């Protein structure tokens, strides 16, 4: 029994020492902001298409927060795609959109149009070079004048 105790005491110290090598949550990057979504977001599906094929009714999978004039894309079977323009009319989980191009069918997936935002500049555009008056006139010596 004593040999078991002598074996357990060093084990407890070893386990305690292992915790010294564990990274803190602040050091592991757990608090870093998540990167923005890279691709389009699935918004819903085409619930119905008007008989004249000029507009559609979209059934959203969540709350509808798209403003009038927003552009959406659809994807259907056989890589069928279309562009939609949100009209701003909505009722509950359903919203209307005009068909801008392409063909749609009931059940096609509706995605937000992904437009990547431009990278913000850091303000360091490099050294600026100023031209003197002699440098500006140097290239104009062989210019023919039509007077």
Q: Describe it for me?
A:
With 147 residues, this protein is of the alpha+beta class. 18% of the residues lie in helices and 29% in strands. The protein has 3 helices and 6 strands, in the order H-H-E-E-E-E-E-E-H. It has helices at 2-18, 25-28, 133-138, and strands at residues 42-49, 55-60, 71-75, 81-91, 94-102, 109-112. The protein has a 6-stranded antiparallel β-barrel. A hairpin with a 2-residue loop joins strand 4 and strand 5. The longest helix is centred in the first third of the chain and has 17 residues, at 2-18. The chain starts with a helix and ends in a 9-residue tail after the last helix. The model has no long low-confidence stretch (mean pLDDT 76).
Question: What features would you highlight for this structure?
Answer:
147 residues, alpha+beta, 6-stranded antiparallel β-barrel, 6 strands, 18% helix, 29% strand, flat
Shape summary: flat
Sheet-strand content, in percent, reads 25-35%
Strand order of the largest sheet: 1-2-5-4-3-6
- The number of helical segments is 3
Q: Helical percent range? A: 10-25%
Radius of gyration: 32 Å
Roughly what is the average pLDDT, rounded to an integer? Answer: 76
How many angstroms separate the termini? Answer: 115 Å
Order of helices and strands: HHEEEEEEH
- Annotation, overall tally of beta strands: 6
Specify the structural class: alpha+beta
The major β-sheet equals:
6 strands, antiparallel, barrel
Enumerate the spans where pLDDT stays under 50 for 5 or more consecutive residues.
Answer: none
